[in-house]
């Protein structure tokens, strides 16, 4: 083959490659254009979706919708309630709106809202606590009460129901089954464990509850409290899942902190003591579990009390008791999930309620002699 022929072949190959490059460029340009159109359409649709979601659902509506925001509701549950009642277009957009505007501190209550309200108007109503109607009466459940104490000190004093009627209701097997269906993630089979004293112990959240009818049923009263517990616990479900723990474990642990804590107590540090003891396979040895096991209120425990054999006693059993021993407040729940980082395995409270912590048993004995005496 002569040089001229070789050149012609080379030029032909170059022309073919240039054609291929032009074709590829055209294909790439077409694909890019199609993608740009798709992105543009999606962006336009998303813009319209968000824009519509930020507007009042029905600017002309004058219908007042009564919205009940339970005690302890978080942003997720409030946004879901608003969407379910047709007061906003989309719960996700509302949550982003609230977070973007750094809004918080929503208040429980019954609100009279309309579909003509803007997101800002709805938010401000929920923050200021302007309710559509005033409650006829309220019930306050303090932190740290047992079911029996709630029945005696709260229900019997604030309603027409007796403590016996209340206790009969919270132990009614058929009613408990109904509640387990209604609150499947909160009330699991753990509440029916063999050694659990009362299935609903620790599940009635301590708070102040408004009531808008003169004679609310026991069902309504109990379920108001369960709603509050579910709202408070559900916000930590992801954390519990990551830890491999359950709401029952959380409420049981938190109840120990609630009973051990005083006004001056550091719940996070007490939580660290319990964690450290559990990790070292030490008994928790917390007095309130003995008192709960014996069903007694005593200012001081003696050796025979500590030797009392019972599933709830953390002096005779390792680990947590079978279930909660009281209703824990939010601060105790949070302390369980965010304990202090310490090496303490002992603590005691002096006569003023101040806690003194120790790493070794010798230090603990020194604290006992110094702050309590022999």
UniProtKB/TrEMBL annotation:
Enzyme class: lyase
Top-rank taxon, per record: Bacteria
Sites marked Important for catalytic activity: 260
Localization terms from the record: Cell membrane
TM annotation in the entry: 23-47
Documented EC number(s): 4.2.2.29
Catalytic activity as recorded in UniProt: a peptidoglycan chain = a peptidoglycan chain with N-acetyl-1,6-anhydromuramyl-[peptide] at the reducing end + a peptidoglycan chain with N-acetylglucosamine at the non-reducing end
Pfam families: YceG (PF02618)
Membrane topology: Single-pass membrane protein
Record's keyword terms, sorted: Cell membrane, Cell wall biogenesis/degradation, Lyase, Membrane, Transmembrane, Transmembrane helix
NCBIfam families cross-referenced by the UniProt entry: endolytic transglycosylase MltG (TIGR00247)
HAMAP family: MltG
Family: Belongs to the transglycosylase MltG family.
Function: Functions as a peptidoglycan terminase that cleaves nascent peptidoglycan strands endolytically to terminate their elongation.
Stated name of the protein: Endolytic murein transglycosylase
Name of the gene: mltG
């Amino acid at each position: 083959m002569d040089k001229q022929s070789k050149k012609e072949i080379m030029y032909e190959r170059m022309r073919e490659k240039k054609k291929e490059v032009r074709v590829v460029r055209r294909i790439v340009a077409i694909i890019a254009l199609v993608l740009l159109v798709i992105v543009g359409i999606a962006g336009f649709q998303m813009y319209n979706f968000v824009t519509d979601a930020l507007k009042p659902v029905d600017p002309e509506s004058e219908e007042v919708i009564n919205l009940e925001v339970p005690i302890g509701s978080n942003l997720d549950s409030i946004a879901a309630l608003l969407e379910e009642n047709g007061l906003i277009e989309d719960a996700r957009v509302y949550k982003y709106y609230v977070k973007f505007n750094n809004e918080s501190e929503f208040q429980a209550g019954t609100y009279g809202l309309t579909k003509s309200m803007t997101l800002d108007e709805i938010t401000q109503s929920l923050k200021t606590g302007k309710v559509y109607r005033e409650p006829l009466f309220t019930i306050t459940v303090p932190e740290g009460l047992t079911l029996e104490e709630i029945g005696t000190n709260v229900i019997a004093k604030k309603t027409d129901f007796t403590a016996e009627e209340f206790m009969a209701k919270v132990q009614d097997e058929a009613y408990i089954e109904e509640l387990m269906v209604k609150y499947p993630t909160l009330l699991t089979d753990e509440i029916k464990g063999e050694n659990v004293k009362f299935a609903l112990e620790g599940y009635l959240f301590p708070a102040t509850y408004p009531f808008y009818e003169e004679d609310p049923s026991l069902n309504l009263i109990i379920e108001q409290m369960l709603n509050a517990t579910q709202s408070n616990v559900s916000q930590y479900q992801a954390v519990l899942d990551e830890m491999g723990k359950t709401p029952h474990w959380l409420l049981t642990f938190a109840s120990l902190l609630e009973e051990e804590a005083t006004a001056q107590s550091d719940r996070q540090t007490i939580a660290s003591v319990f964690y450290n003891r559990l990790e070292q396979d030490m008994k928790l040895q917390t007095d309130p579990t003995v008192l709960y096991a014996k069903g007694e209120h005593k200012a001081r425990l003696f050796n025979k009390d500590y030797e009392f054999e019972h599933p709830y006693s953390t002096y005779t059993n390792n680990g947590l008791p079978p279930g909660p021993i009281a209703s824990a407040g939010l601060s105790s729940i949070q302390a369980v999930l965010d304990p202090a980082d310490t090496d303490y395995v002992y603590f005691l409270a002096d006569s003023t309620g101040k806690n003194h912590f120790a790493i070794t048993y010798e230090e603990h004995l020194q604290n006992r002699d110094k702050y309590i005496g022999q």
